[in-house]
Amino acid sequence: MTDSITVRSPRTGAVVGNVPITFPAGVADVVSRSRKAFEQWSRLTPEERRPYLKALLRTLAHNIDRVADVIVSETGKDRGDAIGGDIVIALANLDYYARHAHRLLRPRPGKWWPLPLTKAWTEFHPRGVAGVISPWNFPFQLSLNPVVTALAAGCSVVLKPSEVTPLSGQLVAELAAEADLPADLVMVINGYGDTGEALVRGGVDVVAFTGSTETGKLVAKAAADRLVPTILELGGKDAMLVLADADPDLAARAAVFGSTFNAGQACTSVERVYVVDSIYEPFLAAAERTMRSLTAGDGGRSDIGVITYPQQLGLIEEQVREAVAKGATVVVGGHRVGDNAYAPTLLTEVDHRMLVCRDETFGPVLSVMRVPDETTALELCNDSRYGLHGSVWTKDHRKGVRLASQMQTGTVAINDITINFFVPSVPFGGIKESGYGASFGPEGLYAYCYPKGITLARVAPVTKLLGAWLPRRPPPFGGPRHWKRIGRLVARR
Length: 493
Ligand code: NAD
Known about the structure:
By secondary structure, the chain is an alpha/beta fold. The protein is 42% helix and 19% strand. The structure holds nicotinamide-adenine-dinucleotide (NAD).
């Protein structure tokens, strides 16, 4: 067994880096070093931590090209996808928590009105050492975002990036050092699934996992042994609903963009489109036209970069092959481009018996289905084991909002595509087998905290005043009389 991971460009096969492996036996030591860093970091107030987040934000903003070079080198993705999809989203998240974390972490008052003499509030305390495990598709932002959120909450972090893209994870530690964050506050370990599992079991206090649903379930089981809380950002099978009053051309171009950016290797890719019958034909014509105009293959000189993880290509091919065998029509694409890319692909005559409608494809493949009305579109959208993201297209904003609320997903965009990732003030996360917990927003921050409820008897112990203490005083001062009074008071209000 080698003690390092050699990273190769998925485009050229050339070696682009090498990282040492931390084997499972060494993980607990890293976690205890991280705990020492946590003890110092958590002594700072949220206001005192703020300048560090701002320094990290500045450091990243000044190093966009360097970070993009690393991402492109190990993923083979298009440079625009690297800057937009990886770096700008990371900047947005950093900006949000640098601005708001200190305010969100202030104690929240919350006494109960029938007990005015008891002051009460909630404090938000950092959980401790956060274990962050990230995937290969957006290897930088999906590493940096949980790291930043954990730091903002007051946690220290041990990050295990994907073995497919460890250089982007390495960059997170480098940038943290360049921004003068305290030593050992952000530590990176490299390795395969066994190192990831050792991290989950290695004494961390919270786990943020982004990856496949199958691995997410293993992480949840391993974390359950010590009841370690987990945030699970898992796979998706995102649907787009195109209603009768939508602009078919605009919606079709959005669908093509949504299914092909990052070569379809996005948890929020548009993978299924349900188009209401009356605009199906113009929608399909526009989708076909747009898709035919795209080039794929040589990341950097085409619209669609290569597939980062070679095994993924086989999976995409298998899903398309199975769909065709069951009656699907390939309108555009449906084949590899060179050794390592997949052509933008448009499928029709698809249905929910096919893998391409049920399982995550994670490639530039768009399945379009004709539906009689929006009710059917919604039913089919919700007929999925996943529930991550989706979109609704309509000129009627009210209707869009109603359908968005009825979609069984953690996030929805109305008349836009995957924009939610650029809006860090609202939570992002899945339901069903897309996971639980959230990134972004107040909820994302609180996931790394434990809420502590505190009460203060302002005048005297209220339990004593209510005659609850033992031995009980005789009526009218003791016994159930006062409790009954409170019960009635609550019902009267
Ligand atoms: P993966 O599940 O194969 O691996 C993710 C990480 O888990 C890697 O670092 C891997 O080494 C580690 N790992 C593997 N086995 C482990 C174990 N037993 N215990 C702990 N860690 C283990 O996922 P992937 O192929 O790298 O990423 C693609 C998946 O990620 C897709 O399903 C995609 O939808 C999902 N994803 C989800 C989101 C989201 O926000 N919901 C975002 C991006 C990607």
